[in-house]
Amino acid sequence: LEEIPRPIQDSGNILKQGYLEKRSREPSFFGSEWHKRWCVLTQRNFFYYANEKSKQPKGSFPIEHYRARLASQLRKDSRKKCCFELLCPGKRSYEFTAPSPAEAEDWVEQIQFLLKDLSSLTIPCDEDEEEEEEEEELSKDLDSSDSMNNSHNSTLIQEEPSQELEGDDIYEVLPGELPNSQ
Protein backbone atom coordinates (compact mmCIF):
# COMPACT_ATOMS: atom_id res chain seq x y z
CA LEU A 1 0.00 0.00 0.00
CA GLU A 2 1.27 3.40 -0.95
CA GLU A 3 1.10 6.05 1.76
CA ILE A 4 -0.64 9.28 0.90
CA PRO A 5 1.91 12.07 1.45
CA ARG A 6 0.98 14.52 4.18
CA PRO A 7 1.17 18.15 3.09
CA ILE A 8 2.50 19.29 6.46
CA GLN A 9 6.22 19.99 6.64
CA ASP A 10 6.02 21.03 10.31
CA SER A 11 7.05 18.73 13.12
CA GLY A 12 4.44 20.26 15.44
CA ASN A 13 1.08 18.68 15.98
CA ILE A 14 -1.87 19.86 13.92
CA LEU A 15 -4.23 21.84 16.14
CA LYS A 16 -6.76 22.81 13.48
CA GLN A 17 -7.15 22.47 9.74
CA GLY A 18 -9.78 23.15 7.13
CA TYR A 19 -10.76 25.24 4.14
CA LEU A 20 -10.82 29.00 4.54
CA GLU A 21 -10.95 31.80 2.00
CA LYS A 22 -7.81 33.92 2.19
CA ARG A 23 -7.76 37.48 0.94
CA SER A 24 -5.02 38.06 -1.62
CA ARG A 25 -2.40 40.66 -0.83
CA GLU A 26 -2.79 42.62 -4.07
CA PRO A 27 -6.33 43.81 -4.79
CA SER A 28 -7.45 43.32 -8.37
CA PHE A 29 -9.37 45.71 -10.58
CA PHE A 30 -12.59 44.24 -9.16
CA GLY A 31 -11.56 44.78 -5.53
CA SER A 32 -10.20 42.28 -3.07
CA GLU A 33 -10.00 38.70 -4.21
CA TRP A 34 -10.69 35.77 -1.92
CA HIS A 35 -9.10 32.41 -2.70
CA LYS A 36 -10.08 29.09 -1.19
CA ARG A 37 -7.10 27.65 0.72
CA TRP A 38 -6.51 24.57 2.85
CA CYS A 39 -5.24 26.06 6.13
CA VAL A 40 -3.35 24.25 8.86
CA LEU A 41 -2.53 25.53 12.33
CA THR A 42 0.29 23.75 14.15
CA GLN A 43 1.90 24.51 17.50
CA ARG A 44 4.34 26.92 15.88
CA ASN A 45 3.16 27.81 12.36
CA PHE A 46 0.19 28.65 10.16
CA PHE A 47 0.31 27.06 6.69
CA TYR A 48 -1.96 27.60 3.70
CA TYR A 49 -2.09 25.37 0.64
CA ALA A 50 -3.84 25.49 -2.74
CA ASN A 51 -5.86 22.45 -1.64
CA GLU A 52 -5.93 19.55 0.81
CA LYS A 53 -3.67 17.36 -1.34
CA SER A 54 -0.94 19.95 -2.04
CA LYS A 55 2.52 18.97 -0.87
CA GLN A 56 4.04 22.45 -0.85
CA PRO A 57 2.38 25.33 0.99
CA LYS A 58 1.57 28.49 -0.94
CA GLY A 59 2.67 30.28 2.21
CA SER A 60 3.39 29.93 5.89
CA PHE A 61 4.39 32.05 8.86
CA PRO A 62 5.30 31.51 12.51
CA ILE A 63 2.14 32.11 14.53
CA GLU A 64 3.94 33.43 17.62
CA HIS A 65 3.45 37.17 18.27
CA TYR A 66 0.36 37.28 16.02
CA ARG A 67 -3.05 37.93 17.45
CA ALA A 68 -6.37 36.75 16.10
CA ARG A 69 -9.68 38.56 16.13
CA LEU A 70 -13.05 38.41 14.41
CA ALA A 71 -13.28 41.11 11.75
CA SER A 72 -16.73 41.59 10.19
CA GLN A 73 -15.55 44.79 8.46
CA LEU A 74 -13.52 42.72 5.95
CA ARG A 75 -16.56 41.90 3.82
CA LYS A 76 -19.79 43.65 2.98
CA ASP A 77 -21.72 40.54 1.90
CA SER A 78 -23.60 37.88 3.86
CA ARG A 79 -20.31 36.21 4.90
CA LYS A 80 -19.05 39.20 6.91
CA LYS A 81 -19.70 37.41 10.24
CA CYS A 82 -17.40 34.60 9.05
CA CYS A 83 -14.28 36.79 8.83
CA PHE A 84 -11.24 36.94 11.05
CA GLU A 85 -7.75 38.37 10.78
CA LEU A 86 -4.28 37.62 12.09
CA LEU A 87 -2.26 40.69 13.01
CA CYS A 88 1.32 41.23 14.12
CA PRO A 89 3.02 44.63 14.51
CA GLY A 90 5.62 45.15 11.80
CA LYS A 91 4.56 42.04 9.86
CA ARG A 92 2.04 41.21 7.19
CA SER A 93 -1.55 40.74 8.35
CA TYR A 94 -3.70 37.88 7.05
CA GLU A 95 -7.43 37.98 6.43
CA PHE A 96 -9.68 34.91 6.23
CA THR A 97 -13.30 33.92 5.76
CA ALA A 98 -14.49 30.69 7.38
CA PRO A 99 -17.41 28.59 6.12
CA SER A 100 -19.60 29.77 9.05
CA PRO A 101 -19.53 32.31 11.91
CA ALA A 102 -19.08 29.45 14.41
CA GLU A 103 -16.10 28.13 12.44
CA ALA A 104 -14.53 31.62 12.36
CA GLU A 105 -14.95 31.86 16.15
CA ASP A 106 -13.39 28.43 16.56
CA TRP A 107 -10.31 29.40 14.49
CA VAL A 108 -9.89 32.59 16.53
CA GLU A 109 -10.31 30.75 19.85
CA GLN A 110 -7.82 28.02 18.86
CA ILE A 111 -5.24 30.60 17.78
CA GLN A 112 -5.76 32.73 20.92
CA PHE A 113 -5.44 29.65 23.13
CA LEU A 114 -2.22 28.64 21.35
CA LEU A 115 -0.76 32.16 21.61
CA LYS A 116 -1.63 32.33 25.31
CA ASP A 117 0.09 28.97 25.76
CA LEU A 118 3.19 30.08 23.80
CA SER A 119 3.54 33.24 25.87
CA SER A 120 3.13 31.44 29.19
CA LEU A 121 5.08 28.79 31.05
CA THR A 122 1.87 27.25 32.35
CA ILE A 123 -1.06 25.82 30.46
CA PRO A 124 -3.88 28.36 30.41
CA CYS A 125 -7.21 27.43 31.93
CA ASP A 126 -10.49 29.11 32.80
CA GLU A 127 -10.47 31.41 35.84
CA ASP A 128 -12.99 29.21 37.70
CA GLU A 129 -10.78 26.16 37.23
CA GLU A 130 -7.77 28.20 38.31
CA GLU A 131 -9.43 29.26 41.58
CA GLU A 132 -10.49 25.68 42.33
CA GLU A 133 -6.94 24.45 41.68
CA GLU A 134 -5.48 27.15 43.95
CA GLU A 135 -7.90 26.18 46.74
CA GLU A 136 -7.01 22.49 46.32
CA GLU A 137 -3.28 23.26 46.38
CA LEU A 138 -3.69 25.44 49.46
CA SER A 139 -5.53 22.71 51.35
CA LYS A 140 -2.93 20.14 50.21
CA ASP A 141 -0.15 22.43 51.41
CA LEU A 142 -1.82 22.82 54.82
CA ASP A 143 -2.35 19.05 55.12
CA SER A 144 1.20 18.25 54.10
CA SER A 145 2.71 20.90 56.38
CA ASP A 146 0.75 19.48 59.34
CA SER A 147 1.89 15.96 58.58
CA MET A 148 5.46 17.16 58.01
CA ASN A 149 5.47 18.93 61.37
CA ASN A 150 4.08 15.87 63.11
CA SER A 151 6.51 13.48 61.47
CA HIS A 152 9.39 15.91 62.00
CA ASN A 153 8.61 16.21 65.71
CA SER A 154 8.44 12.46 66.20
CA THR A 155 11.76 11.82 64.45
CA LEU A 156 13.93 14.41 66.16
CA ILE A 157 17.27 12.90 67.10
CA GLN A 158 19.57 14.24 69.74
CA GLU A 159 22.71 15.42 68.00
CA GLU A 160 26.11 14.89 69.51
CA PRO A 161 28.15 18.01 70.13
CA SER A 162 30.20 18.81 67.04
CA GLN A 163 33.85 17.95 67.11
CA GLU A 164 36.56 20.31 65.99
CA LEU A 165 37.96 19.18 62.66
CA GLU A 166 41.69 18.87 62.30
CA GLY A 167 43.67 20.28 59.39
CA ASP A 168 42.05 20.80 55.99
CA ASP A 169 39.47 18.03 56.40
CA ILE A 170 36.19 19.50 55.17
CA TYR A 171 34.13 16.38 55.76
CA GLU A 172 32.03 15.91 58.83
CA VAL A 173 32.71 12.82 60.91
CA LEU A 174 29.46 10.94 61.36
CA PRO A 175 28.80 8.98 64.55
CA GLY A 176 29.97 5.38 64.18
CA GLU A 177 32.49 6.18 61.42
CA LEU A 178 36.22 6.44 61.77
CA PRO A 179 37.95 9.38 60.11
CA ASN A 180 40.15 8.46 57.14
CA SER A 181 43.82 8.54 57.94
CA GLN A 182 45.79 10.52 55.38
TrEMBL record:
Domain PH: 13-116
Acidic residues composition bias: residue spans: 125-138, 161-171
Keyword Membrane: yes
Main location: membrane
One GO term describing the cellular component: nucleus
Keyword Secreted carried by entry: no
Protein keywords: Cell membrane, Cytoplasm, Membrane, Nucleus, Phosphoprotein
InterPro entries linked to this entry: PH-like_dom_sf (IPR011993), PH_domain (IPR001849), SKAP_fam (IPR037781)
Compositionally biased region (Polar residues): 148-157
Region of interest (Disordered), residue spans: 123-182
Protein name per the record: SKAP1 protein
Organism per entry: Chaetorhynchus papuensis (pygmy drongo)
Taxonomic lineage from the root: Eukaryota, Metazoa, Chordata, Craniata, Vertebrata
